[in-house]
Amino acid sequence: MLKGILATLASIVLLFILTKLMGNKQIAQMNLFDYVVGITIGSIAAEMATNLDGDTIGCAVAMTIFALVAFGISVATNKSLRLREFFAGRPIVLMRNGKLYRGGLKAAHLDLSEFLAVARLAGYYDLSEVSGAIFEHNGSISFLPFAQHRPYTPADASIAVKPQEILYDVILDGRIMDDALHKAGKDREWLKKHMRAEGYKDEREILLALAGTDDTVTFFKNEP
Fold first, then answer.
1. Which parts of the chain fold into alpha helices (H)?
2. How many domains does the chain have?
3. Is residue 104 part of a domain?
4. 140-189, pLDDT tens digit by residue?
5. What does pTM read for this prediction?
6. Residue 62, domain extent
């Protein structure tokens, strides 16, 4: 029993360290090699935690080797375009100037039904609205609509708009976040003044507050 608990804790700690080494990536950002390495390391970790009669040290070494190889490939692909294309692949053109290429679909291992489903999920039910489509190396598809079908923007009407900026969560779950306040160039006195102006006496009355570098702050009441 104790051996199983220790092996499980060791696998969790090692997994945490190795994933930190390899870096944080969302599933959608992974290429095929990243995905395979992740599954393999997870499988070895499960074996390490559940097989009490197995070679715990051997499993740990195998996980470490996989992680180091993945890390080394990541460093190499960041420095070499050819290695990046070899391991991650290159984008594949599926449509250009409204023309759909069968060769591109074949190279991406997509059939027409799959392509149409992805297009609908992207909001394109009519392919005549699409000028270009590219199959990215992470398996997603990017669509470029024709100019007459793209969303209307303020630039089309020559309207000047205020640039958007990063907003910081200066209050989170009823607690003032001093680090976020500092990043926004504000202090507690400034925040308390705006809280009083909005009728709040205590930060615990606020679920979330967002502030930028200007003099405005948005409060969300801590509703039951």
1. 2-22, 32-50, 56-79, 81-88, 102-107, 112-121, 178-183, 188-197
2. 3
3. yes
4. 899 999 988 888 777 777 777 777 778 899 999 999 999 999 998 999 99
5. 0.59
6. 2-86
